[in-house]
Amino acid sequence: MRPPTGTTTDQAPADPTATDDALATQPIGYWSGLAHAAVTRHLRDAMAAIDVTQPQYWVLNRVNGGPAAPCREEVVGQLTPLADGPHEIARAVDQLVHRGWLSVDAGQLLCLTDTGEAARVRVRELVTGLRAVVHDGISDEEYVAALKVLRRVIANVEGAGN
After folding, report:
1. In this structure, how many other beta carbons lie within 10 angstroms of the beta carbon of residue 60?
2. Which pLDDT does position 3 carry in this prediction?
3. Chain segment 41-80, per-residue pLDDT in tens
C-alpha cells in the first residue's frame, strides 16, 4: 500500500446536509452511490415510459457497436459486469429477440433488425435528452474533472489490492 500524499483528511460520517467546506471529509462511496442510484433511477424511469430497459439498451448498443456481429455469449460476458444480476443481460437478449429487435443468424451471431435499429435510435435520442438534464449547470470541464477523480479513486482502491 502506498503512503498517502499530502495531508490526510479525517473521515466524517456521511452527511447529506454537509456544507461545501465540509465535503472534503465526506465518504466518496456514499456520494458516488447516491449519484449512481439517482441517475440510474432517472434513466430507467424514462426508459420504462417507452417500454425499454437500460440493459436492453446496452445490448442494442453492443450489437450495433462492434466491428463484427457478436454472439450471445460475447454480449452476455461483456455486459454482465454492468448489470444488477448474473442473468439480466441474457434475459434482455431473449426479450429483444422475442420482440423482433434482434435476430440470430445461421452462425449464431446477433444482428439488429430494422425495427431494433429504429428503437436503438429512439432510445439514444431519449438518453441524450436525459443526459442534458443530468449535466445541467455542469461544464464539460467540471464533468471531466469529476470523472478523472472517480477514475483515480478506483485506481487507488484496486491498486491497494482490495
Report:
1. 24
2. 47
3. 999 999 999 999 999 999 999 999 878 899 999 999 999 9
Amino acid at 102: L
> What is the pTM (predicted TM-score) of this model?
0.82
Angle between helices 88-99 and 72-79 (to 10 degrees): 140
Give me the amino acid identity at 23.
L
DSSP codes, 49-115: TTT--HHHHHHHHHHHHSSSPPBHHHHHHHHGGGSSSTTHHHHHHHHHHHHTSEEE-TTSBEEE-HH
DSSP per-residue codes, 20-32: GGGGGGS-HHHHH
Environment class of 160 (CB within 10 Å of its CB; exposed 0-12, middle 13-18, buried 19+) = exposed
Name the amino acid, one letter, at 59.
V
Residue keyed to cell 456481429: 69
Mean pLDDT, all residues of the chain:
92
